[in-house]
UniProtKB/TrEMBL annotation:
It comes from the Bacteria. This is Lipoprotein.
Length: 109
């Protein structure tokens, strides 16, 4: 019983510490990037009068995140492959500047 209690305390402590000083996960960054792509698709659909996805993220990989000097922001580098009409699959490294907001991570312009 003591061992189970000790393990539970260690797990709870690590979760608390991780939540305080962590950077965004690959899934969180992917969701932020996908939100931008969705907005771009919505705008392009209205302009081109075309339904459905125009740009589609087919691969997303978080490379690293570094603190931006004199701010609480982080600059995260990601490798992204986006499928686009006429251009096909385009792979690029992108910089996403993010900050911790009240309801999670947000992109900073």
């Amino acid at each position: 019983m003591k061992n189970i209690l000790s393990i539970a305390i260690i797990l709870m402590s690590s979760l608390v510490l991780t939540g305080c000083s962590r950077e965004p996960s690959q899934e969180e960054l992917h969701a932020l990037y996908q939100e931008q792509i969705n907005q771009t698709n919505d705008l392009a659909s209205r302009i081109m009068k075309q339904e459905g996805e125009i740009m589609k993220v087919t691969r997303f990989e978080k490379l690293d995140c570094n603190k931006v000097d004199k701010t609480k922001d982080l600059n995260c580098r990601v490798n992204v492959t986006v499928e686009m009409p006429f251009l096909g699959a385009q792979t690029n490294t992108a910089d996403l500047r993010v900050a911790k907001g009240e309801s999670g991570w947000v992109l900073v312009d």
